[in-house]
Amino acid sequence: MFICCFLTFSLAFMLFPIGFNVIVSWLSPLFGTSLRIALSQIFVLLGDPFVYSSLLILWITVGFLGGLILRKRIGSILITVSVYVSQFLILALAGFNIYKIASNLGFIDLLSSPSNLFNIMPPMPAGSSISALLSAPIIGDLAGTLTNIQLSSINPSTLITTIVSSMLPNAAKNIIIIILASFIGCEVGKFLYNSFRPQINRLRSIFPKPSFFSTGTSKKSCMILSTFGVTLLLFGSLLTTSIIYVSGFSSSYYAEYLFTPIHPNGDVYVRTAILDNQNILKNIDFTGEEFQKCISAILITHGSSTSINPDITLLLDSLPTWVPRDVISQNIEAYFSSTDTLFIAIYDDIDLSIADTRAAQVANLFSSKTGVNLSPLISFQQSIGESYESIIIYSSITPFSSAEEGIISLLPVDERNGLCDWISTVWDGGVLSPGRLENSAESTLIVLGYGESNKIRSLLGDGLGLITDFLPVTDMPFAYLTLSSYFPKVYHSSPIVNHQLDLTELTGLNDPIIFSPQSNISAIINVVPEGNTSLIKVITTASEEFADQISESLTAMFGSTSSVQINTVSLGTTIALDDITVDFTFRFPLKLKIEKSITLDEVNRYQQITVTIKVINDDVDPAENIHLDDSASLHYYPNAKVVSGSLTKNWEYIPNATASGPSVLEHTYIISLDKEGIYTLNAASITYTYKTAEFTDSSNSINVKVRPPSLFQVYLEGIPQVWNSLSTMIELIPIFKGNGSIILATIVFISVAILLLMETNNRVKLRSLFFKKIKEN
Fold first, then answer.
1. Distance CA 478, CA 459 (A)
2. Which of 76, 166, 231, 613 could in theory staple to 70 by disulfide, Cβ–Cβ 3.0 to 4.6 A?
3. Please, what sign has the CA dihedral across residues 309, 314, 315, 317?
4. In a domain, 715, yes or no
5. Is 463 found in the same domain as 323?
6. Domain that residue 640 falls in
C-alpha cells in the first residue's frame, strides 16, 4: 500500500494539468505549494478519466500494481481503494493548510464582502484571463454548474450539495477503474506466481517468513500503521463620449459625437460615439422575445499596451448607489485586468432563469455580428425600490485584437458617412489601436450596445450624468457604438506653457471631418484645461427639432465656470481640422519618466532579486523634493521580504536634461520571494515639486516568476508542514488544546517503537533460522 500511495502522490504531482497553471501562478504566492498539492489531488481524485487519459493510465497502474502484488481479489480491491481514499486525506491536509493561511490573511472574515476580498487579492498575472481560469479542468465544469444557481438562493448546504453531486460521478468512475484494474492485476499475479511457484518455494524453504504475532493481528496492525504513516508524511462605458439631451424623434434617429478632452496631467482622450436605431445592429429584431424586458445589453472590449483605460475607473466612480459594488464596481477592474472582452445584459422585473435564457440568445446575436465568442460568467439579481433587475455577465476568450475588427466593421459608414467615415479611416491608420504603431494609443475601450433610453434613465437616475445627458428620450430601442482611446503624457510644461490641441498631430490624419447630412445631432467637442477651469470649444449641428436644445444642454453639462465656445453649422458641413484646433495656456507636469526593472524575471524560491527604480528627467527644467514610494510593490504578498535597502527614497533635486542626455536618479533594493507563482510588483509612485506646484507620477509594474519546487523538495519540506497541520488539527479538540505536537509525537513514537520491535524480532528469528539451516546442511 505504501508503494501505491507513494506512486499515486508522485504521479499526481508530476501530472499537474497545464490548465491549473493560471490558478497556481495567481494564488500560489499567497498559499504556497499547498495549493499545487490540493489542485493535483483534486484533479486525480475528481477528474473524468474518460476525458483525461493521464488519469485513466494512473488509476489503471495503481489498481493493477496493487492486485499484482497482493494476488487476493478482495484484499487487493480493498487496498487499492484505500489508496484512492488516502489521497483525500492528503487533500484534506493541503486544504487545511490553505485555510490556515487564508484565515491569517483575513480572507475568511471577508467572504461576506467580495469587494474587499478582491482588494487584498493580487491581480491576475499578465496573459491570464478569467476565461482561461474557467477552462481549467474540473473548475470549468463546476463553474458551469454553479452558474445555474441563483446567487440569492445560494447557502452553504446548497453549495456543498451542488459541488458534491457534480463531482461524485467522476469519483465513481475512478473507483470502478481501480477495482477492475486490481482484479486484472490479481489474476495476472496469480498466473505469474503459479508459473514460478517451484523457484518461490525453494527460496521460502531457505528463508522462511517469520511472524511477530501468532495470529493475523500482525497484518492488520501493519496495515493500520503503514496507512497512518503514509497519511502522516504526505455595464457599459457609455461615458466615453458627450452628451446632448434630445427628445421627440420618431422612427429614425442618428447622432454622432467626437469628444477630445485633455487632462491636467497631460493625458489626452479621443472619444467617439455613434447612436443609430437602424444601421449598427442590422437585421436584428429588437421586438423579439429575447429583448423583452431588456433594459440594455452591451459588449465591451478593452485593449491595452500596459494599463487599464482610465475611463473604466471613471465609470465605476460614477455608478449610482444601488449598483452592487461588491459584485461589479470594485471588481470590474479586476475583470478587465484578466480578460479583454465582457458582455453585460440587464433585464427588468423577470425571473433570473428567464433572464439567463434571454441573455444567452442576445449574446449569441452579438457574437454572430462581431465574431466574439462568449461564455457565461455570473448572473445575479439586484433590488431597486419595488423592482428588481437581473444582471447577466459573459466573458470571452476572444482577444481585443480579434474583437476590435468585428465591432468597428459595424460602423454605418456607407449608410451615414459623416463621423463614421472619419472614425473608420483613423482606425485603419492604426493610431487608435494599441500596439499597432509607435504612437498608437496606450489603451482603447470599445462598447457596442443596445438599450431603451427611457428605461436606462429611470434605472440610473442622476448617477451617470454624462450618460443620461446624451440619451434620446424615447421608448424606441436603439444601438450605439462608442470608442475611447487613451494617450498618456502627451503634454508637458517645459519649455513652454502655451499649447495647442491639434487632431492632425494626434491622429496623423489631415482629412477634414464632414458631418452627416442625415444626422439628428452632430457635435465635435474639445476640452482643454486653462487655469482652474476648462476651455471648451464646440462645433455642432442638429436637425430642426433638436436645434433649440443644444446650447441649454451644453451649459448644463459643463457648468457656468467653464468657458464654452459654441459654433453652430449646417447639416452635412465640412469641418477643417484647423477650425477645431484649440490654443491654450497651462502648466503641465515635467517630462519625467519612472522606470522599474529587475535583475531576473524568473527565479527559484528564496533567490534574491534586485529591484531598480530610475527617475529620468528629459525636460529642460529641474524638479525638487522628489519622494519615491514603492511600498505598493509588495502590497499583496505578506511573505515577500525586503532583504536589503528600502522601499522609499527622498532626493532634494534632479537636474534638467543636457546635451549629453537626460538626468537620472537611481534607487535599488533587494527582495526575496519564498513561494512559487507569478508576482505582480505594483508601480512605484513619486511626488515632486516644479515651480512651487506639486505633481505625481508612477512607474510601470513588473512580473516575477518563481519556479515551483521539485518533487524531492515537496517530500522534504512536506514532513514538517504535515506535522504542523496534524498538530493544529489535533488541537481543535478542546481537551487537547496546546498539546497537539506532544500527542502527535507520542503516537509516532509508539508506532515507530512497535515497528522496530517487530523488525528486531523478525531479524532474530531470521538469523536463528539461517544458522539452523546451515547446521542441517
1. 17
2. 76
3. positive
4. no
5. yes
6. 592-706
Q: Are 490 and 266 in contact (CB under 8 A)?
A: yes
pLDDT on residue 422: 92
Average pLDDT over residues 435-460: 79
User: Are 389 and 516 in the same domain?
Assistant: yes
pLDDT at 502 over 50: yes
The string of pLDDT tens digits covering residues 448-499 is: 988 776 666 565 554 444 444 555 555 677 788 989 899 988 888 766 778 8
Residue 232 has pLDDT above 50, yes or no: no
Beta-carbon-side half-sphere exposure of residue 708 (alpha carbons within 13 Å): 19
Mean pLDDT of the region 203-211: 52
| Cβ neighbours of residue 197 closer than 8 Å, sequence gap 6 or more | none
DSSP state of 241: S
Counting beta carbons within 10 angstroms of the beta carbon of residue 15, is it exposed (0 to 12), middle (13 to 18) or buried (19 or more)? middle
User: Would residue 716 count as lying in a domain?
Assistant: no
Burial class (CB in 10 A: 0-12, 13-18, 19+), 116: middle
Instruction: Report DSSP letters for 553-622, one per residue.
Output: HHHHHH-TTSEEEEEE--TT-EE-GGGG-EEEE--PPPSEEEEEEES-SEE-TT-EEEEEEEEEE-SSS-
Three-state SS letters, 26-60? HHHHHHCHHHHHHHHHHHHHHCCCCCCHHHHHHHH
Q: What is the pLDDT of residue 29?
A: 93
The number of distinct structural domains making up the chain is 4
- Which grid coordinates belong to 357? 435564457
Domain boundary among the residues 691, 706, 721 is at 706
- Alpha carbon distance 233, 724 (integer Å): 11
Question: Do 331 and 182 have their domain in common?
Answer: no
Give yes or no: residues 580 and 596 share one domain: no
Strands 387-395 and 341-348: antiparallel
Beta partners for 499?
Answer: 584
Q: What is the CATH number of the domain that holds 668?
A: 2.60.40.10
Q: 458551469: which residue's cell?
A: 144
Query: Do the bridges between strand 294-304 and strand 608-617 make them parallel or antiparallel, or are there none, so unpaired?
Result: unpaired
pTM for this model (two decimals): 0.73
